[in-house]
Amino acid sequence: MLFRILDPQTKANQFWRDFDRLNDELTRSILDSQFGSSSNFPPVNVYTKEDEALVTCLLPGMEADAIDINVKDNLLSIHGKKKAEELAEGTEVHRREIFNGEFHRTLELPFRVDQEHVLAKFTNGVLNIHLPRREEDKPKKVSIIAG
Amino acid sequence: MNTLTQENNREVTEKVAEKGEKTPAKVYSPNVDVLETEEAILFRVEMPGVDQSSVEISIEKDQLILEGKFVPPTESRGQVRLAEYREGNYFRKFTIGKAIHSDKAVAKMKNGILELTLPKMEPKKTKIEIQK
């Protein structure tokens, strides 16, 4: 957002709503032209436990078999292509906010992953990838002998 | 002027407050494609993580309200390392500037995308005779 004039709560009227939207879109397009469209698609969340990481990823509208997941050491890459819906002739487009196109994301995890036991599930447009930590890398508790 | 005008979801917070929830869930405005063919108006709404049973669509006069309830997972997912999106409910409201058959609306949910087809109504022509 380039600037804000008023606190959003006070903007009850239509003019300020439209103004906000314009402001948002302008800011986004300026940022994109300056730095190149940031490859933030798809958005991901990463959660970690001591022996496992969970990556969740929003991919609404994708088919499970069009998503490619690769794991190597501590790197996870998600790749895919989202096809644009074909439009029938004479279709008028009022709004187009949903992403189409190719995407590629690589994420670095805090530990190396046991590639054999990665589990990925795709439900309701959310991809969940469970990545267990390698057995040999798991922290081992060292017991202290009292002496 | 656009035939389909979107209303911003500034009302969302009020709506949550009305229901008297103690900790109002976060509400997000989902991405939408709105297309219009000769026969129908088509809405495609991104609602990842929302189950078919938790989507609510209502049409009242020219107001279309799309709502999706997000159910958070019960098991712990660990420490958050990276959070590029947040989870919550979805809400978006539209004003439809065309006559539609709301009772013939068809909705489908597939892979986190809600597809709603609203068939357009044929404009009825009524001729009025002038009395002599």
From TrEMBL, chain A:
CDD domains: ACD_sHsps-like. PROSITE patterns: SHSP. It comes from the Bacteria. SUPFAM superfamilies: HSP20-like chaperones. InterPro entries: A-crystallin/Hsp20_dom, HSP20-like_chaperone, Small_HSP. Residues 35-147 form the SHSP domain. Transmembrane segments: none annotated. Belongs to the small heat shock protein (HSP20) family. This is Hsp20/alpha crystallin family protein. It comes from Leptospira wolbachii serovar Codice str. CDC. The lineage of its organism: Bacteria, Pseudomonadati, Spirochaetota, Spirochaetia, Leptospirales.
From TrEMBL, chain B:
InterPro entries: A-crystallin/Hsp20_dom, HSP20-like_chaperone, Small_HSP. CDD domains: ACD_sHsps-like. PROSITE patterns: SHSP (PS01031). SUPFAM superfamilies: HSP20-like chaperones. Residues 1-22 are annotated as: Disordered. Residues 8-22 have a biased composition (Basic and acidic residues). Residues 23-132 form the SHSP domain. PANTHER family: HEAT-SHOCK PROTEIN 20 FAMILY MEMBER. Belongs to the small heat shock protein (HSP20) family. This is Hsp20/alpha crystallin family protein.
